[in-house]
Amino acid sequence: MKDSKSFNLELRRKLVHISGIIFVPIFITINDKHLIIILLFSTIIILLLISYSYKKFGMFSFLKLFERVEDLKTFPAKGAIFFFLGLIIVAVISDIKTLIIATLILSLSDGFSTIVGKAFGKRPLPYNKNKTLEGTIVFFLISFLILINFYEIFSSIIFSLIVSIVESLNLKINDNLSIPVTLAILIEIYKQF
Fold it and tell me: What CA–CA distance (Å, rounded) separates 187 from 155?
């Protein structure tokens, strides 16, 4: 952890990330894939308008509480937009159950792993110094605890391991896309057997 100001910003960002679980009961209540896609798409439109308004007119200054300085300059609300874009892709290629699982993992596993990694992480991963072993273990464990409610133990371990590896990589693609899409692809492959 660089400093407490940096940690506090990351903590606020990840608490917003974790709050994404609020969409799970909404998805269950709506229970219609097309309406859910419309909801997610509408959310992205609103976030894009907020992002544009911040950059063009300085509106929505609350973004400063949750955004990294570099993202405020280049693409405000980028993480939130990619969060919902990843969920739209899952909704298109899979079913509502998979969307719920992806939302839980993206919200909880990604959120808590970063908090734990930043607060307590001592061992950087050899292939990505921005991630820690401690954070990756938390991502795996939370993902497993979510998945075990839907799948048998072996599949839950495999799915958790693969999405944990994907999350830990230093990819050019935003992990708010790579995590849910990887999970959806794994589940779709699983369904074929």
Answer: 9
Q: Domain range holding 123?
A: 4-191
Return the pLDDT at 2.
Answer: 53
Residue matched to tokens 């994907």: 166
* Sign of the four-CA dihedral 39, 99, 93, 78: positive
Residue pLDDT, tens place only, 154-173 = 999 999 999 999 999 999 99
CB 89 within 8 A of CB 41: no
Q: How many domains does the chain have?
A: 1
Note whether 76 and 67 are within 8 A (CB).
Answer: yes
Helix crossing, 96-104 with 133-147: angle to 10°? 150
Q: Whole-model pTM?
A: 0.94
- Is residue 105 classed as helix, strand or coil in its secondary structure? helix
